[in-house]
Amino acid sequence: MSLVVLLSGPNLNLLGEREPAIYGTQTLADHVARAEATAARHGLTIEHLQSNYEGALVEAVHAARGRADALIINAGALSHTSWSLHDAVAAFDGPAVELHLSNPAAREPFRHTSVLAPVTAGLVAGFGGLGYELAVDAVAQLLKGAS
Ligand code: DQA
What we know:
The chain is of the alpha/beta class. The protein has a domain at 1-57 and 87-101 and 132-142: Dehydroquinase, class II (Rossmann fold, 3-Layer(aba) Sandwich). It has helices at residues 20-23, 28-41, 54-64, 83-90, 130-144, and strands at residues 2-8, 44-50, 70-74, 96-100, 122-125. Bound molecules: 1,3,4-trihydroxy-5-OXO-cyclohexanecarboxylic acid. 1,3,4-trihydroxy-5-OXO-cyclohexanecarboxylic acid binds at residues 11, 74, 76-77, 79, 100-102, 104, 111. 1,3,4-trihydroxy-5-OXO-cyclohexanecarboxylic acid binds next to loops.
């Protein structure tokens, strides 16, 4: 069974309470459960980590090297700033998909840049919780070598 590491960055532990008009009322556990159910349909296993610390996310990407087949990353605000996470993902040799609940391109200018975009296969953004399903579907297709 292929392993997909799902990473959640800063403040995503507050989903369900945090700015519900933007991020919805579902919790991170709800989203992870949805990703897991989708992964099971594809014969994939999800391993999830949430951290508010940039270094912990960098280390999780390192730990995925040679062990996981793909990455799905909602790095929260670190998506816009973290060159160390960019470099860690660049050193991962499977497909990585960037994920956001909201559509950063339609929000404040500081969210318009993604430092992960150059090192990821693509981006799923703006679909709320459905994005967790779509990102797993995308990874499943990428692992099959389909487009
Ligand atoms: C987010 C978008 C980011 O800009 C923001 O900092 C987050 C959540 C999203 O899922 O929509 O924390 O990654």
